[in-house]
Amino acid sequence: MQLKPSEILYSQDSINIYFDSKSSHDGHKLGETLDDICEGNCSFESVPAITVVNQDGKWMTTNNRRLWVFKELELLGRCLTVPVNVGESIPEARRTTRNGGLSIIIRGYLEGRRYQEHENKDHYQIVPNSTRYDDSDSDDNFTHSDNSDNHDNDSDEW
User: Fold this and answer.
1) Which residue has the higher pLDDT, 126 or 6?
2) Fewest 10 Å CB contacts: which of 61, 66, 74, 151?
């Protein structure tokens, strides 16, 4: 099945800038990976399909880092649709989005340059890595965290 990245919602409220150790891009930053795809150093076809789940008639994924890259590729005119696998459910603990999955907070600085080539930044906000979105805060507030771990629970194994 194929979907437009813009038709898929994020399941989490935030993601880290690094792909995790289960990924072939372990330690690579999202922005650098986007650049690699755009510059032909990495093939779009090598990106594994993301898994989506139908949540009240809308598609949502736990592969939030890959989704961010796909959304950027769509905005840059580099892809119209992406391959998806349909899953059955997303565990409640993995659904931390506060805005219905429309946008996500990126913890850290992206690096790269391609994400800066378009005006539309509606689907994300960047905050310093030492800043952590706190559940007790309003949607516009952040708190400092001493957690310097570069990886999170986003199930993005690419």
Assistant:
1) 6
2) 151
What is the tally of structural domains in the chain?
Answer: 1
Quote the crossing angle between the two packed helices 64-75 and 30-38, to the nearest 10°: 40
The per-residue pLDDT for range 10-64, each reduced to its tens digit, is 999 999 998 876 666 666 789 999 999 999 998 888 788 999 999 999 999 999 9
Q: Which domain holds residue 64?
A: 2-144
Q: Are 51 and 64 in contact (CB under 8 A)?
A: no
User: Is 60 exceeded by the pLDDT of residue 146?
Assistant: no
Token couple for 78: 């580099």
The Cβ of residue 76 has, within 10 Å, a number of other Cβ atoms equal to 15
Please report whether residue 85 resides in a domain.
yes
User: Dihedrals φ, ψ of 99, to 5°?
Assistant: -130, 30
